[in-house]
């Protein structure tokens, strides 16, 4: 009995699936993704148009929002077959963070006596005016289609960058929504002020003017009203749950604890625990309030802003600056972890990336979503962890939690690296399969740590299948058996009964 290399395994599996099960096995000719034991990686489906959200549904299907495709799609996790359940043609699919974004199932979705409601957040545009809209769709179980949407909250602030837009329904039945700072004070928006610290007034609330909701997380009643137990912040109760955020693209409940991942500027991506009324510091602080690596350069306050040339790390003369230790707020909440904090003398110019792709070499990973891997999942080393997808590194970060699920334990593991941008992840009920959807394009790093000309698997769902040592083995000399073993794994983790064929009863390990 002998092991084979990852490349050999991929080749053997592809040959086996093509020759043994052609015309029968829905996984025949599937593309395999090289990955480390005890996992098998493969492509489930392709052709998604900028997927953004991906959830495992109570119907044992994956539900995906396609940001550019302006549709919501159900994907069979065993075959990759796709079915569009609804479209939102009025949504605006901008080049970066616009279109159909977050999605969440209503409480009791597809259960006996449950309310089959799907919450969706998307962006709109009319001329130069952009805004966000939160709606709920009824879902028809018979036709497997969405009905007519009801608007819950409209005219939320949106822009051409950093809209965040992650949606979750909490254990309390409230809707939680993240809104980014719209990329103000950087790039093409560098003369626009950051308003993540600005809070609403009662006069604005009376007028349903939500413009101050930039850089916030919101807590919303299902009918769109303000929950009576939302926090008072500076004397005003609004939809605002927390503030001082940059681009919080991930939300995950672990019990009653709400985790959020947030993209930093040139350093200090954050993992936060959101507490009612908490101030998370942006733009005065990036990461910890430690005076390291980050200085707030307020371009919007420069008297000659329009004549300046923006630079993310070299501050032009005349731009007002503020160091982190010069700012204080008693409500400031530090992150539980950063990716990564660097010293003030860090050199952000890396010859590997050059001027056109410099951001890829900055000490950030661009976290895009988080989910919780349960304590009773099938993979021992993953139990009670946060799984965080990243865009720049094309990797899944596994961050262990403590026994009470409220504190970060130790360091993290960087897994399933590929030349892709990982947008969101989901797991099946057993925890045996980890699904990751990928961006259609954008900046990514190759295996040598340099900017890649293209992503490897655009608009795809990748699967990383747990193959525990001593349970299923693969033998380069017996490709037929490899196909049988792979099909056994699929049967086992899709709810079937895994029965090994009479031939090859001993595992090849």
Task: Provide an overview of this structure.
The chain has 509 residues and is mostly beta strands. It is 7% helix and 33% strand. The protein is built from 3 helices and 30 strands. The chain has helices at 6-20, 202-206, 479-493, and strands at 32-33, 39-45, 51-56, 62-66, 71-75, 82-87, 100-105, 117-126, 129-140, 145-146, 150-157, 164-169, 175-179, 216-220, 232-233, 236-237, 240-243, 247-254, 257-263, 269-273, 295-297, 321-323, 337-339, 367-373, 385-390, 396-401, 408-415, 422-427, 433-438, 461-466. The strands form 8 sheets. The protein has a 5-stranded antiparallel beta sheet with strand order 1-2-30-29-28. Helix 1 (6-20) packs across helix 3 (479-493). The longest helix has 15 residues, at 6-20. The radius of gyration is 23 Å and the shape is globular. The model is unreliable at 1-27, 470-483 and 492-509 (pLDDT under 50).
Task: Give a topology summary.
Elements lengths: L5 H15 L11 E2 L5 E7 L5 E6 L5 E5 L4 E5 L6 E6 L12 E6 L11 E10 L2 E12 L4 E2 L3 E8 L6 E6 L5 E5 L22 H5 L9 E5 L11 E2 L2 E2 L2 E4 L3 E8 L2 E7 L5 E5 L21 E3 L23 E3 L13 E3 L27 E7 L11 E6 L5 E6 L6 E8 L6 E6 L5 E6 L22 E6 L12 H15 L16
Antiparallel strand pairs: 1-2, 2-30, 3-4, 4-5, 5-6, 7-8, 8-9, 9-10, 9-11, 12-13, 13-14, 14-17, 15-16, 18-19, 19-20, 20-23, 21-22, 24-25, 25-26, 26-27, 28-29, 29-30
Helix pairs in contact: 1-3
């Amino acid at each position: 009995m002998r092991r084979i290399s990852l490349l050999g395994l991929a080749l053997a599996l592809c040959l086996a699936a093509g020759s043994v099960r052609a015309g029968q096995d829905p996984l025949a000719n599937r593309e395999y993704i090289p990955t480390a034991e005890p996992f098998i990686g493969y492509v489930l489906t392709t052709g998604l148009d900028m997927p953004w959200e991906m959830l495992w549904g109570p119907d044992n299907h994956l539900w995906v929002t396609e940001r550019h495709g302006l549709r919501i799609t159900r994907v069979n996790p065993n075959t990759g077959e796709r079915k569009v359940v609804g479209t939102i043609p009025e949504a605006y699919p901008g080049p970066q963070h616009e279109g159909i974004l977050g999605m969440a199932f209503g409480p009791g979705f597809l259960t006996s006596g449950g309310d089959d409601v799907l919450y969706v957040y998307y962006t709109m545009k009319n001329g130069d005016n952009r805004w966000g809209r939160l709606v709920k769709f009824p879902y028809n179980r018979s036709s497997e289609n969405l009905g007519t949407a009801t608007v819950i909250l409209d005219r939320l602030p949106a822009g051409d960058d950093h809209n965040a837009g992650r949606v979750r329904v909490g254990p309390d039945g409230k809707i939680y929504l993240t809104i980014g700072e719209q990329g103000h004070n950087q790039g093409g928006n560098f003369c626009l002020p950051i308003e993540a610290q600005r809070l609403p007034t009662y006069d604005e609330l009376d007028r349903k003017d939500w413009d101050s909701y930039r850089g916030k997380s919101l807590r919303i009643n299902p009918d769109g009203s303000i929950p009576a137990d939302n926090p008072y912040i500076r004397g005003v109760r609004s939809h605002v749950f927390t503030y001082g955020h940059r681009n919080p693209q991930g939300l995950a409940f672990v019990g009653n604890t709400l985790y959020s991942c947030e993209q930093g500027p040139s350093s200090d991506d954050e993992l936060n625990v959101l507490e009612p009324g908490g101030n998370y510091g942006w733009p005065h602080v990036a990461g910890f309030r430690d005076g390291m690596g980050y200085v707030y350069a307020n371009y919007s306050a420069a008297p000659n802003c329009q004549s300046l040339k923006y630079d993310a790390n070299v501050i032009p003369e005349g731009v007002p600056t503020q160091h982190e230790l010069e700012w204080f707020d008693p409500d400031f909440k530090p992150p539980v972890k950063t990716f990564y904090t660097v010293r003030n003398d860090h050199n952000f110019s890396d010859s590997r990336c050059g001027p056109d792709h410099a951001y890829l070499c900055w000490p950030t990973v661009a976290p895009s979503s988080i989910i919780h891997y349960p304590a009773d999942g099938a993979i021992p080393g993953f139990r009670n962890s946060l799984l965080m997808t990243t865009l720049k590194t094309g990797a899944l970060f596994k961050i262990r939690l403590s026994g009470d699920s409220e504190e970060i334990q130790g360091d993290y593991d960087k897994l399933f690296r590929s030349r892709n941008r990982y947008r969101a992840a989901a797991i099946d009920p057993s925890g045996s399969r980890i699904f990751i959807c990928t961006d259609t394009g954008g900046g990514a790093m190759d295996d040598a740590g340099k900017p890649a000309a293209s992503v490897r698997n655009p608009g795809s769902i990748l699967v990383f299948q747990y193959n525990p040592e001593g349970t299923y083995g693969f033998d380069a000399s017996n490709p037929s058996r490899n196909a049988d073993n792979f099909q056994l794994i699929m049967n086992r983790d899709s709810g079937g009964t895994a029965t090994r064929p009479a031939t090859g009863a001993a595992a090849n390990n």
